[in-house]
Amino acid sequence: MSTPPPRPSVLFVCVHNAGRSQMGAAFLTHLAGDRVEVRSAGSAPADAVNPAVVEAMKEVGIDISAETPKVLTTEAVQSSDVVITMGCGDACPVFPGKRYLDWQLDDPAGQGVEAVRPIRDAVEQRVRGLLGELGIPASA
User: Fold this and answer.
1) HEC secondary structure over the chain
2) The CA-based dihedral angle spanning residues 26, 14, 106, 128, taken in that order and rounded to the nearest 10 degrees
3) I want to staple 43 with a disulfide (CB 3.0 to 4.6 A). Which of 28, 86, 91, 128 is the partner?
4) In this structure, is the dihedral angle defined by the CA atoms of residues 73, 77, 79 and 84, taken in order, positive or negative?
5) Is residue 45 within 8 Å of 16, Cβ to Cβ?
6) What is the pLDDT of residue 1?
7) What is the spatial distance between Cα 121 and Cα 90, in angstroms, rounded to a whole number?
8) What gap in Å lies between CA 57 and CA 39, rounded to an integer?
9) Contact 108, 53 (CB under 8 A)
10) What distance in Å separates the CA atoms of residue 58 and residue 109, rounded to the nearest whole number?
11) 7-24 burial by CB neighbour count: b if 16+ within 10 A, else e?
12) 48 — phi, psi (to 5°)?
């Protein structure tokens, strides 16, 4: 019997872990199910996920209302195969041998749901592209 290939692990990082990285993690979890290990974190986490981000995700059938911003740890980076940074600049630790992607996306902080929608849609498209690169078909 062959052993299944190890699940790739992906870490989404932004400054507050309240918007972009939460959307990235939610879309990847939604589209890949348990075929990818998903984490998100922030270099300076906010107290709560941005309510406009929660609302925008709810519009596409993904509930992230129970998520909480998490602090970025060295261990999270070291145990991830792919690290996706979203505007955290030099605050994101870099380790050799990791694959880093920097997604330039507007920060939804302080924005209403109308402004968050195009950011949400851009995050979804990039997550779908990442799944293609990882060779994992999207389940939705």
Assistant:
1) CCCCCCCCEEEEEECCCCCHHHHHHHHHHHHHHHHCEEEEEECCCCCCCCHHHHHHHHHCCCCCCCCCCCECCHHHHHCCCEEEECCCHHHCCCCCCCEEEECCCCCCCCCCHHHHHHHHHHHHHHHHHHHHHHCCCCCC
2) -40
3) 91
4) positive
5) yes
6) 62
7) 26
8) 17
9) yes
10) 17
11) ebebbbbbbbbbbbbbbb
12) -155, 160
Q: Which two tokens stand for residue 19?
A: 């918007």
In this structure, the number of other CB atoms found within 10 A of the CB of residue 94 comes to 10
In single-letter form, the type of residue at position 104 comes to Q
Beta bridge pairs of residue 41: 13
Which pLDDT tens digit goes with each residue over 51-74? 999 999 999 999 999 999 999 998
pLDDT tens by residue, 91-111:
666 777 889 999 999 999 999
Q: Which two tokens stand for residue 95?
A: 């380790």
Are 43 and 92 spatial neighbours (Cβ–Cβ below 8 Å)? yes
As annotated, the active-site residues are 14, 88, 92
Question: Rounded to two decimals, what is the model's pTM?
Answer: 0.92
